[in-house]
Amino acid sequence: MEPELLRSSSEEETIVIGGDFAQRLRIGDVVALYGDLGAGKTEFVKGICTFFAVEDIVTSPTFTIINQYAGTTPDGVPVKIYHVDLYRIETPEELAEVGFDDCVFAHDAIKLVEWSEKAEHLLPRAHYTVRITADPDDDNIRLIDIRYQSVPVGIERL
């Protein structure tokens, strides 16, 4: 997949971009989200959850660390979505305490991880990366850089 650089001028547009992105996701995928506070990571996640017909209100799990949502694919297959927010995590021990490793390697769910830089060493080698930053020329515009980091077939996490 070629890298994409998209522009968003509003929260609503970021939600739409997240929904468009969600069309490529499959059960088992991991999306590592990067961006400063207020960049739009949770809005992007809301778009993904909207695509998968999640009925719950999607909020940032800053205090719960992991939210789980039930949704369905466009063809009616049930899908579990883990929305993880590592903002408050300080140590590898805290990652273990919240069950991050089990969550991120769950094969039966889509995993959306905010503040992924705090757990990069635990992410699977193959995953999507979404970086949301303010446009240096206009703070009201968000730049959304989407990439897929893949590994050769047959190579798994060591």
UniProtKB/TrEMBL annotation:
GO terms for molecular function: ATP binding; metal ion binding; transferase activity. Belongs to the TsaE family. GO terms for biological process: tRNA threonylcarbamoyladenosine modification. It is found in: Cytoplasm. It holds the Pfam family TsaE. Gene3D superfamilies: P-loop containing nucleotide triphosphate hydrolases. Its main location: cytoplasm. One of its GO terms (cellular component) is cytoplasm. The lineage of its organism: Bacteria, Pseudomonadati, Candidatus Kapaibacteriota, Candidatus Kapaibacteriia, Candidatus Kapaibacteriales. Keywords: ATP-binding, Cytoplasm, Magnesium, Metal-binding, Nucleotide-binding, Transferase, tRNA processing. It comes from Candidatus Kapaibacterium thiocyanatum. The keyword ATP-binding applies. This is tRNA threonylcarbamoyladenosine biosynthesis protein TsaE. The keyword Methyltransferase does not apply. It comes from the Bacteria.
